[in-house]
Amino acid sequence: MLSLTLINTTHAHHHQFFNPTTTTILKPLTSPSLHHPHHHHQHHSAGPRPISASLNPPPQQQRVYQPFRPPPSPLPSQFRSLDIAGRLDILANRLGPWFEYAPLIPSLFQEGFTPPSLEEVTGISGVEQNRLVVAAKVRDSLIQSKTDPDVVAAFDMGGAELLYEIRLLSAAERSAAAEFIVRNKFDARGAQDLARAMKDFPRRRGDKGWEKFEYKSPGDCLSFMYYRKSREHRNPSEQRTAALEQAMSVAETEKAKGAILEELEWKGGEGNGKEGQVQDGVRVPVVRLKMGEVAQASSVAVLPVCRVEEREREVLEAPWQCKSEGEFGLVVADKGWARWVVLPGWEPVLGLSSGGVVVAFPDARALPWKVNRWYKEEAILVVADRGRKEVVEDEGFYMVAVDADDAGGGYGLKVERGRRLKEMGVEESLGTVVLVVRPPKEEIEDRLSDDDWE
User: Fold this and answer.
1) What is the per-residue pLDDT across 401-451, written as a single tens digit (0 to 9) for each?
2) Residue ranges of region Disordered (predicted)?
C-alpha cells in the first residue's frame, strides 16, 4: 500500500492504473488526497470506481448549419457549359426549341434571379416563364409515359400553351388528352375545356345520362360537359340544339352518341316518343347546383329572394333591377333587400335584364310534380320573370298566389301549368317560371326525368 501511494504521488497527474483483480480503470489519486489523510483514507475504503464519461468527454466535431439547397435543374447537354450571361442570351433571343431553353429559367432562379428581374433582362413575362417551365415538365411526363413520339413532336412548335392547360391531369390522362388535342387541332381554349371536362367528369356521377359516357375517353368527357350544359337552356331552343351538336362533334363512343342523338330528336316532344311519356316535354330547366359551381363560374347572376309565407307581397315589392357597375363589377340594386342568392351565369338567369325574382320553397310540393316521388320534400329555388306575367303558353309554367286550401301544404304561392290556369280563368300570373334550382348534394341519387311533371 505504501508503494502504491508513492507511485501515485509521483504520477498522479500523468497516468491511470489498471487493477488486474477488478479489470476496471482506477482513478488517479488527486493532490488533495496527499495533503489530507482523512480524505485519502475515505477514497481507498470506498474501493475503486469506474471513470465517468462526463469527466473526460470525447472531442466532438463542430457542426456548422447548412441551409437546404435544391439540386440544380437538369439542363440540356448543350447548355451545361454556359455561364449566366450565356443562358440569359439564349432566353432573350429564344435560341432553340422552347422545351430546351425552358429549363434555363429555374437554373437562373438558383443564381439569384427573380421573375421580375429575369423579365427585365430577357423580355419573358413572369406568366410566360411559369408556363414554359410547367409545360416542359408536362412534355417530359408524356415522354416517360411512352406517348406516341409524333404526338409529342406536334407540340414542339409553340405547344407550351397547350401543354400547360393539361398540367392538372394524371400522367395517363395527359397522354390521352394530348393525343385528342392533336387529333382535333385544339387551340388553348379547347385544351382548357378538355382538361376541365376530364377533371370534372367523375364528380358528375349520378347526373342524367352520365353512365352513357366513357370516363377513359377524353372526347366523351368533353361531350358530356356540352351535353350537361344543353340542359341549362330551354327545350326547344337554338342554344340547346347548338350545345347538343357540339357534344355530338366530340363524342367518341357509340353509347354517348346515342344519348345525344336521343336528345336532338326529342326537341320538346316532336318525333317518336315512347309510350307513356309526356309528349310536350319539360320546358323549364331543372338544374342541380353543384358544390363550388358558383366559385368556378365565369359569370354569375345576383337575384332577390322571397319567402313563400309572405305570399305575393314580397314578389311584388322585390327589387326590379340588379346589375353590376364599374371596373370591379359592384352589384347595384334599385332598392334595398334582405335576402339575395348568387347563381352561376346560366342562360335563363342571364337573360333576365330586369324583373327576375327567386322564391325559396321549403319543399317541392309547390311544383306540379307527380305524386309520391322521392324528391317531394326537397327544398328548391324557383326563378321567375316578372316581366312576363301574361299566361300565354299552355305548357308553360307560371308563379301564382293561391288560397291555402288549394296550395297543398298551406303555402300561398305555387307553380302551375298554363293550361290549368286558363281552365281556371286566370289570365295573369306573378311571373313566368324560367328555372328551377335544386340544392347541392354529395350522395348519388335518382335524377329528375322528363316525365316527372304532371
Assistant:
1) 876 555 444 567 888 888 889 888 888 999 999 888 888 875 444 444 444
2) 28-72
What backbone phi and psi angles, to 5 degrees, belong to 247? Answer: -65, -40
Distance CA 224, CA 186 (A): 18
Residue 100: Cβ-neighbour burial (10 angstroms; 0-12, 13-18, 19+): middle
Beta strands in 297-412 (DSSP E): 300-307, 322-325, 330-333, 340-344, 356-361, 380-385, 397-401
Element (H, E) at 105: helix 104-109
CB within 8 Å of 422: residues ≥ 6 apart: 391, 394
Cell of 316: 311584388
Evaluate whether 194 touches 180 at the Cβ level (below 8 Å). Answer: yes
Helix (H, G, I), strand (E, B) or coil at 114: coil
How far lies 381's CA from each of 198, 235, 253, 390, in Å? Answer: 29, 20, 36, 21
Q: What are phi and psi of 259, to 5 degrees?
A: -65, -40
- Reply yes or no on whether the pLDDT at 71 is more than 80: no
Instruction: For residue 258, tell me if it sits in a domain.
Output: yes
Spatial distance between the Cα atoms of 418 and 430, rounded to a whole number of angstroms: 13
Domain assignment present for residue 450? The answer is no
Give yes or no: residues 259 and 294 share one domain. no
Alpha-carbon torsion angle 56, 57, 59, 62, nearest 10: -150
Instruction: Answer whether residue 236 is part of any domain.
Output: yes
Count of structural domains, the chain: 4
Same domain (yes/no): 355, 409:
yes
Report the candidate in 268, 360, 277, 274 with the shortest Cα–Cα distance to residue 314.
360
How buried is residue 178: exposed, middle or buried, by Cβ count under 10 Å (0-12/13-18/19+)?
A: buried
Asked if residue 224 is part of any domain, the answer here is yes
pLDDT in tens, 298-343: 778 889 999 888 888 899 999 988 877 877 878 888 888 889 999 9
Structural domain boundaries enclosing 139? 77-183
Q: Which residues contact 138 (CB under 8 A, 6 or more apart)?
A: 163, 164, 166, 167, 174
Torsion of CA 267, 272, 274, 276, to 10 degrees: 80
Full-model pTM: 0.50
Exposure string of 132-151, with b = 16+ CB inside 10 Å and e = fewer, is: bbbbbbbbebbeeeebeeeb
Residues 316 and 368 in one domain: yes
